């Protein structure tokens, strides 16, 4: 029988795998974050500051980054664009997961993608915008916040109108998931 003394060391590959998983969770969480943080949130209206988030490859070259930024700025559907560096993404990650210090300790800025957050002139055309950029060199992933909004918003209206909500303490049901998403859009059951 062997005894372990001191903290177990984790391989770099395992750390990167855990960080990649966290990035996936953070990408999903970003949707909620941006929908909640909209200062002009009103019931029955998209509350977020941005409609689309374009995540970049972690090792994107400067010239490719500049080409992507230029293409985004010149696109007729782009109203506003905001760049978030890997360091800024790390700050956001640390804020989001502040109650999980072990996870925060495993993640470096280099593990997270930089991103462009875009507000569109016509949010109904977000799918078209996403399709134009999803295969561009240097783009890792695109999150269409409007797609989630279009998905949940009709259910939110119906649930609010009919007074439907999950049973108290029922955090595992689809009703609970819908209620949480709806609350991010300004609905209150």
UniProtKB/TrEMBL annotation:
Domain spans labelled FtsX extracellular: 52-142
One Pfam family per UniProt: FtsX_ECD
Keyword Plastid attributed: no
Record's keyword terms, sorted: Cell cycle, Cell division, Membrane, Transmembrane, Transmembrane helix
Residues annotated as transmembrane: 16-36
InterPro entries: FtsX, FtsX_ECD
Transmembrane helix keyword on record: yes
One cellular component (GO) term of this entry: membrane
GO biological process, one term: cell division
PANTHER family given in the database record: CELL DIVISION PROTEIN FTSX
The protein's name in its UniProt record: Permease-like cell division protein FtsX
Lineage, uppermost ranks: Bacteria, Bacillati, Actinomycetota, Actinomycetes, Glycomycetales
């Amino acid at each position: 029988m062997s005894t372990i003394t001191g903290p177990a060391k984790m391989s770099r590959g395992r750390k990167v795998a855990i960080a990649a998983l966290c990035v996936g969770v953070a990408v999903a969480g970003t949707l909620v974050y941006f929908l909640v943080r909209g200062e002009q949130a009103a019931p029955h209206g998209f509350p977020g500051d941005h409609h689309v988030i374009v995540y970049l490859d972690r090792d994107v070259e400067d010239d490719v980054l500049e080409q992507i930024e230029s293409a985004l700025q010149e696109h007729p559907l782009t109203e506003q664009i905001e760049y978030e560096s890997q360091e800024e993404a790390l700050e956001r990650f640390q804020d989001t997961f502040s109650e999980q210090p072990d996870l925060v300790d495993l993640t470096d800025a280099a593990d997270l993608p930089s991103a462009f957050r875009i507000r569109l002139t016509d949010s109904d055309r977000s799918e078209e915008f996403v399709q134009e950029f999803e295969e561009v060199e240097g783009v890792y992933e695109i999150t269409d916040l409007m797609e989630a909004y279009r998905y949940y918003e009709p259910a939110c209206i119906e649930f609010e109108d009919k007074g439907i909500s999950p049973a108290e303490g029922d955090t595992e049901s689809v009703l609970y998931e819908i209620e949480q998403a709806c609350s991010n859009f300004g609905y209150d059951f």
